[in-house]
């Protein structure tokens, strides 16, 4: 049965995307049964949306299963484990199981630019969104970046272009969903605890950005990333590679201090690198990917340039906090995996005191070893502290801190004039904080209290 033929939906997970898809579906005249294993989340949903016509909540083991059985389709939020008993029950019954991204897709005819990758997604969709805004295109940025796809459609808004940040968790639950421009920034180990400790399984999830790709699909990919290039080798549509390390005969690259593109219309310098203010090679790559992604939309070059010039970095991504006693403090709480931390270290000149730790996502912390030459000390926080010390302790001084205030205090004591104290944890935040944003806010507050 086609998605839009279904009338009764079961929504599992009532975090932001779950609540948004409930509103979208009920607004479209569908009946929705909603459930979350966290009773508190159910109460919040009822308090906020209790008057939402066509939506009821269920709780209790004796009620949830039969309620699911009475529905046509299960919509699962990205934070719900893919082996959840209700998902297994639905699949045993032959019931379609989709995610919020899939659901929203059926309610729009807009062109979709989809961006995925281990690192850099939020910055890239932000840059693309800024370029579209400057160009006067009726567009919106949504998805994993913060505003759910369903939420931007729930009020009936009509867009020409929708730019979506897509996590691997969201790509796991798509069926018909496909994009007009697919962007794959990089693929390095992350979330292996969810993917049965298999990097290959995680990479296959990222490759789903090309789900149902056609000959007219444009694929933007990192030509310096082995997984990205392997995926591109099997793609028959329009390839748009980018590289921060070498000139490409056709594609997007850095040369002579500028972002260059060579495409069917010719070769040109899009913008000088220094005019795009976010620091670091990873942000240069994000800019390259953004220019590649909007190239099929045939926007004016001056609008592209102004969009790049006027873009400002998001909070918690190599965010300058302040200078205290000639020591610079940088908040990169969004660096939630090892590769992101490596990119952060590569972006900083001079000595570094590095704050690492949190909840381990089975990252290989030994990959940091070649990048510790300028690291004066590593200050450890959170559950992963012992694992990180085992990987790095023979090569760099490590010190424990019980909380962020202690970590900032220890880092201040270790840093010398001209150094940088860098929060780039290489871990998830959920052992100590609500999310990476909360972690960054606490870091910022501790630094401002010095």
Give a written overview of the molecule.
The chain is an alpha/beta fold and 450 residues long. The protein has 3 domains: 7-95, 3-Layer(aba) Sandwich (Rossmann fold), CATH 3.40.50; 103-310, UDP-N-acetylmuramoyl-L-alanine:D-glutamate ligase (3-Layer(aba) Sandwich), CATH 3.40.1190.10; 319-448, Mur ligase, C-terminal domain (Protein-Tyrosine Phosphatase, Chain A), CATH 3.90.190. 34% of the residues lie in helices and 22% in strands. The chain contains 16 helices and 20 strands. A 9-stranded mixed sheet has the order 7-8-6-9-10-11-12-13-14, with helices on both faces. The longest helix is centred in the first third of the chain and has 15 residues, at 121-135.
Q: What is the makeup of the main sheet?
A: 9 strands, mixed
- For the record, what CATH class of the largest domain applies? Alpha Beta
N-to-C span: 61 Å
Q: Give the CATH superfamily of the largest domain.
A: Mur-like, catalytic domain
Alpha-carbon Rg, integer: 23 Å
Give me the side-by-side strand order of the main sheet: 7-8-6-9-10-11-12-13-14
Dominant shape: globular
Report the portion of residues in β strands.
Answer: 15-25%
| Classification by helices and strands | alpha/beta
Number of separate structural domains: 3
**CATH domain topology of the largest domain:** UDP-N-acetylmuramoyl-L-alanine:D-glutamate ligase
CATH-defined architecture of the largest domain: 3-Layer(aba) Sandwich
Tell me, rounded to a whole number, the average pLDDT: 93
Low-confidence stretches: none
SS summary, helix count: 16
Total strand count, please? 20
Q: What's the helical proportion of residues? A: 25-40%
